Each structure stands twice: as C-alpha cells, then as structure tokens.
Amino acid sequence: MFITPLSFPALNTGDAMSEAKKGMFWFVQGNVKILMLCRVLWSASTSIIYPFFSLYILALGGTSTEIGLINSLGILAGMVLYPVGGYIADRAGRVKLIGYSTVLYAFAHLFFVVANDWKIIAIGQFFSQLLLFYMPAMNALEADSLPPGVRGKGFAMMMVVPGAVRIVAPVFGGYIIEWFQNTSGQSSDQALVLAVRICWSIAFATGLLVAWLRLRYLKETMTEEETTEK
Length: 230
Prior knowledge:
12 helices, 0% strand
C-alpha cells in the first residue's frame, strides 16, 4: 500500500510581490479615486446634520407620527425607481446618469433649507430619496473600475473611508447646534432651525461640487457596442 504525499497549491508569490511594489492601495486611481472622494465629501456634509433630522422636524412643529411618516416616504421613494435606474445604466451608460442625477439630488436638499413646516420636509425627503435611483449605476461603475484581483479590498475601502467620516461628523453637528443655541440669542428651537438650515445649505453646495466632479472626471466603462446591443 502506497501513501500518496499531500500536495498543496503553490502560492502565487509573483502577484503578492507585484502588489507590494505598487503599494497597498495602488488601485485607488481614476474612477475609484473620484468615487471615493465624492463619497467622503457627501458623508462629511450630510452626516453632520442628518442625525438631527428628527429634531428639525419637531422644531418646525412636526410630531413623532409625522417623523415616522417622513422616513417611510423616503424608503418608499427609494424603492420606486431603483429598477429603472439599473435599466438605464445598462442601456445608456453610467456616468451621465450618475452626474445629472446627482445635480437633481443636490437641488432636492433645498426643500430642507427653506422648509417652514414638516410637509415641506416630507416633500424634500420623498424627492431626495427618489433621485437616488442612480445608485445601481454607481455600484456598477465601481465594479467595472476596480481590477478583478482587488475588488473585495476595493469595495471594503470605499465603504470604510466614508464610514469613518460618518462616525466623526455627527459630533461636529452637535457642537454647531449647541454653539448656535448658546450664542444666537434665540430660543433653543429657533437656534436649532437656523443651524440646520445653514448645514443643509452647505450640503447643497457640496452636492453641486460632487456632481461637477463626477461629470468632469468619471470615465465611462461601457463601450458604444455594449449600450447599443441591449
């Protein structure tokens, strides 16, 4: 009886050495770099104020029931056009859909800036979430832009870096609101409304910057043949 020695697959040391020479994050370039930068900008501008969204609604006369309604409207709106966004992305390409939809999404934030009651906020929440139908296109562009050997690492990086910003940003948002409440000479609710409106205005301006970056620097990953044959 002969015992066959165990064999193990050879380690691909060539790929490991090649990646070490390039650097751990060599794939953060081109579309990947722009997509990550834009997510960081969005995370910084919206995460400062979004955790205080419910307080904003209450300060404008809304109730707990209306807070729930506004959030449900946002979830519903987000579901409606996702399949449409995916279809358009596969038919007409990703970059233009992402860029122009980002412009519309940014303008939807103006509802939060000018709101004087919870109904205006509800309209803004509905339209802002509705206009996120470009997300399937952006996810597809991310997948197309990451080299096959580092897609797992790439997706992780694109989640972790903006996520780290979202951890810190709400703390600054709280400080901003407290500063207005302590220095503006207005009531607590009035100062909160003022602080939130200023922060949403900054988020709107950031959204326009993000839209410009996406339209200017993102490169289409689909060929004309791929878009016309579908």
